[in-house]
Design brief:
By secondary structure, the chain is mainly beta. The chain has one domain (3-87). Helix content is 7%, strand content 36%. The chain has one helix and six strands. The strands form two sheets. The chain has a four-stranded antiparallel sheet. A two-stranded antiparallel ribbon has the order 1-2. The longest helix has 6 residues, at 56-61. It is globular and about 30 Å long. It starts with a strand and ends with a strand.
């Protein structure tokens, strides 16, 4: 089962083509156009992506229950215009 803000959410591990960063200093600005592991989260009528390099995003939505605070709370968002290329294994 997967969560966001400690509530059930639909999450899946995916590979995305990283979209355009909102500003050049954003952590993922150098990744624009590249394939990158992510977690796609659908919660409360919205869909968004968080980084899943080294499995950190998946740990947040499973072990950390998507909580805003706690040992698995940190995450790095990816641009909203990132595109899912395929599901990750």
């Amino acid at each position: 089962m997967t969560f966001w803000n400690r509530e059930p959410a639909v999450c899946r591990r995916v590979i995305v083509r990283v979209g355009k960063a909102l500003r050049p200093t954003w952590w993922c600005a150098d990744l624009e156009g590249q394939e990158h592991p992510a977690v796609e989260i659908t919660y409360d009528g919205s869909m968004f992506f968080i980084d899943n390099e080294y499995g950190v995003g998946w740990r947040k939505v499973t072990l950390g229950q998507g909580a805003p605070f706690g040992p698995h709370s940190r995450h790095r968002s990816l641009p909203d215009d990132s595109v899912v290329l395929r599901e990750a294994l």
